Amino acid sequence: MSRTVYCQYLKEEAEGLDFQLYPGELGQRIFENISKQAWAEWQKKQTMLINEKRLNLMDPEARAFLEQAMVDFLFEGKEIEIEGYQPPSS
């Protein structure tokens, strides 16, 4: 049986993650407040950021940058700017 959370990103009840995917206190906050759908959207953004900025995840600064971007995206409602990426215009 899947769990439901009030997703801070979607601002609605949605299917929660099956287990904590990120370590520590932030990971617990994500587990309790972020849906599978929102996490999947973050994963896409994260991959674009890593590729765009050529981040080395062995570098603590790169990990700190990504973690801040994740918090901004999931909890603060901030759009992640990907340089050189143009969303399709309407």
TrEMBL record:
Protein name per the record: Probable Fe(2+)-trafficking protein
Coiled coil region boundaries: none
One of the record's GO molecular function terms: iron ion binding
Gene3D superfamilies, per database record: Fe(II) trafficking protein YggX (1.10.3880.10)
SUPFAM superfamilies reported for this sequence: YggX-like (SSF111148)
GO CC field: cytosol
Short name of one Pfam family: Iron_traffic
Organism: Pseudidiomarina taiwanensis
Family per similarity comment: Belongs to the Fe(2+)-trafficking protein family.
Key words of the record: Iron
Gene Ontology biological process terms, A to Z: cellular response to oxidative stress
InterPro entries referenced in this protein's UniProt entry, alphabetically: Fe_traffick_prot_YggX (IPR007457), Fe_traffick_prot_YggX_sf (IPR036766)
Functional summary from the UniProt entry: Could be a mediator in iron transactions between iron acquisition and iron-requiring processes, such as synthesis and/or repair of Fe-S clusters in biosynthetic enzymes. Necessary to maintain high levels of aconitase under oxidative stress.
Domain of life: Bacteria
